[in-house]
Design brief:
Elements: E1 6-7, E2 13-17, H1 22-32, E3 35-44, E4 50-59, E5 65-68, E6 75-79, H2 90-106, E7 111-116, H3 135-147, E8 151-155, E9 173-175, H4 178-191, E10 199-201, H5 209-222, E11 234-238, E12 244-248, E13 259-267, H6 271-280, E14 284-292, H7 306-309, E15 318-322, H8 329-332, E16 337-340, H9 343-354, E17 355-356, E18 381-382, H10 402-419
Parallel strand pairs: 1-17, 2-3, 2-6, 6-7, 7-8, 8-9, 10-13, 13-14, 14-15, 15-16
Antiparallel strand pairs: 3-4, 4-5, 9-18, 11-12
Helix pairs in contact: 1-9, 2-3, 4-5
Length: about 425
């Protein structure tokens, strides 16, 4: 993969919208100074493979279409189709995205980069190899090895060693949602009338410590909140593919009377998060998860997460997720769920990782080395969870849903009375 930076606003950028990713394409085009394009016909064959054929058209911000006859010497960013399980699977995305990369290369594009909003990880999808590689990792590797794009942007890719697999010669750019979630956390805690200093972060398992640490640093260094920088880690023991047991580490006892923030990259059934919340004994438990794969309950077929957010005393008081996957209304419209658009996160990440803005003389773009952001920005793009790494600009103002704040205030009073706390 090449590592050269693109010039923002050069007028030679096209952003291809995969199925279900039109909002992301529009945000990337607006942020990076390009035009959204698509093909007249996109769809899924009976065997599960995608097709993209017919004339290419550019779509302006008003929805008007204009035929695009030539993309020679242009730069193209392909937005992979949005996963809509079980209808649209990671394997579908592999076939479609690799084919699109090759199509634009054959038509003379100067460079072709790809953005993959989510390749959902499921434990049962693992292939038992020496490395036990998750399917999302295998699919991303397949897109690179088959399509050979000039750049790849992933969102909270779950596997921190992803760049080590299958002979990747350049690391992908990875966007982490920690900054987005911490801005929202601050607005929630302040919205329910509590001091932001009473917000504490806990890692739901050993693998989540880096993400939890990034959240704490963003809260303290960027948002100026004096939070406790000690991060308890829940000792999670996996009994089977679907069952876990929780044993708390030292430090969790200090959460009584606090608001616990539990960040993760994926929430499936919600059991791990609920068990972590039970260990904390916090006043409120707020979950932050980038990708909602939403495992169904075996008996009802409804998302298992519902059992932890329904009722008068839910295990999880609030769940913040993004729409990187198609979210069913029963979850997306739930009063305890705050669904955030992934489009801004991805657009800022692409701009930070790949573009030089001629109007900003303090930038240095080296592709996968990222672009350093100005003072006051929120960390968006990095290659681990280093809040001092390459970053971009994110709107720091978020307004929580009014109904969610009402529920949290009621929870606060109820739990505070139970614990006999002075709030």
């Amino acid at each position: 993969m090449s590592s050269g930076g693109l010039v923002k606003g050069s007028g030679n950028l096209y952003v291809y919208a995969g199925i279900g990713s039109e909002d992301i394409a529009a945000a990337v085009a607006k942020q990076c100074g390009g035009s959204v394009i698509t093909t007249i016909k996109q769809g899924v064959y009976a065997d599960g493979h995608f097709f993209a054929r017919g004339a290419k058209v550019a779509i302006d911000e008003h929805g008007k279409m204009k035929r695009v006859d030539n993309i020679r010497f242009s730069d193209v960013i392909v937005i992979a189709p949005r996963i809509d399980l079980p209808k649209v699977t990671p394997d579908n995305v592999l076939v479609m995205t690799s084919g699109l990369i090759q199509m634009f290369k054959d038509e003379g594009a100067r460079s072709v980069r790809v953005i993959i909003p989510c390749l959902p990880y499921q434990r049962e999808d693992r292939e038992l190899t020496d490395e036990t590689v998750a399917i999302m990792v295998k699919t991303a590797i397949g897109i690179i090895n088959i399509g050979k794009p000039d750049g790849v942007l992933l969102v909270d890719a779950h596997e921190p060693r992803i760049k080590e697999y299958a002979g990747w010669h350049a690391r992908p750019d990875i966007v982490h949602a920690s900054a987005l979630f911490m801005v929202c956390a601050k607005s929630i805690v302040e919205g329910i009338g509590m001091s932001a200093e009473r917000f504490k972060i806990i890692a739901p398992d050993k693998g989540g410590w880096g993400r939890a640490k990034a959240c704490v640093v963003i809260l303290t260094k960027t948002l100026g909140i004096d939070v406790d920088d000690s991060i308890p880690i829940i000792d999670k023991v996996r009994i089977s593919a679907t069952q876990v047991a929780m044993r708390s580490f030292a430090g969790v006892e200090g959460f009584e009377g606090a608001v616990a923030g539990i960040p993760d990259d994926i929430i499936a059934g919600g059991t791990t998060m609920a068990q972590a919340a039970e260990v904390t004994h916090a006043l409120l438990n707020i979950v932050f998860a980038t990708h909602a794969t939403l495992t169904p309950d075996k008996e009802t077929g409804l998302p298992n997460l519902l059992k932890y957010i329904d009722g008068p005393n839910p295990a999880l008081n609030a769940v913040l997720i993004t729409d990187s996957l198609v979210i069913p209304p029963i979850i997306g419209d739930h009063p305890r769920v705050w669904k955030l658009p992934i489009s801004e996160l991805v657009a800022v990440g692409a701009n930070s990782a790949w573009f030089i803005d001629p109007s900003r003389d303090h930038q240095s773009a080296n592709g996968s080395n990222g672009i350093s952001a100005g003072i006051g920005s929120l960390t968006m793009v990095n290659y681990g969870h280093d809040p001092d790494g390459p970053s971009g600009l994110l709107n720091p103002h978020r307004e929580p849903p009014a109904r969610l704040l009402e529920l949290l205030r009621a929870d606060l009073v109820s739990k505070g009375l139970q614990l006999n706390l002075k709030l």
